[in-house]
Design a protein that fits this description.
By secondary structure, this protein is an alpha/beta fold. The chain has one domain: Rossmann fold (3-Layer(aba) Sandwich), CATH 3.40.50.2300. Helices cover 44% and strands 20% of the residues. It has a five-stranded parallel β-sheet with strand order 2-1-3-4-5, with helices on both faces. Helix 4 links the parallel strand 4 and strand 5. Helix 2 runs parallel beside helix 3. The longest helix has 13 residues. The chain starts with a strand and ends in a 7-residue tail after the last helix. The relative contact order is 0.17.
């Protein structure tokens, strides 16, 4: 997974950093942050292949953040995830351009495969 870079954004700090560490163990260069504002700053300063965003965060949630990211980096693939996902949120996220929508808890191997597919540029059909 040469030079594959991922940004993980989740307001649950422990989860965000643990997920980034698990991705690093699988050869993915992953960074974590805990607010949408931090994520926007990082996206301005660094290049990522994929962003993994929690849907439910205080302030700007994942879908809104994805829309802001699209303004700055339209080619950045976004994977949304939620612990309390509804079908409406899933449809809103995928309809808004998310590559995929995962429900926690998800298998790390499933996430890695989704990241690899997303970074290859092929869109998952819903």
């Amino acid at each position: 997974m040469e030079n594959l870079t991922v940004l993980v954004v989740d307001d649950e700090e422990e989860l965000a950093f643990a997920l980034a560490e698990r991705l690093k163990l699988r050869g993915i260069d992953a960074e974590a942050c805990t607010t949408s504002e931090q994520a926007l700053r990082r996206i301005e300063d660094s290049v990522y292949d994929v962003a993994i965003l929690d849907v439910k965060m205080p302030g700007m949630g994942g879908v809104c953040l994805m829309n802001r990211i699209r303004e700055k980096r339209p080619s950045l693939q976004v994977i949304l995830f939620s612990g309390h996902g509804s079908e409406q949120e899933r449809e809103e996220g995928l309809g808004g351009g998310a590559f995929d929508y995962l429900v926690k808890p998800f298998d790390i191997e499933e996430l890695v495969q989704t990241i690899l597919t997303a970074s290859g540029g092929s869109r998952k059909s819903s």
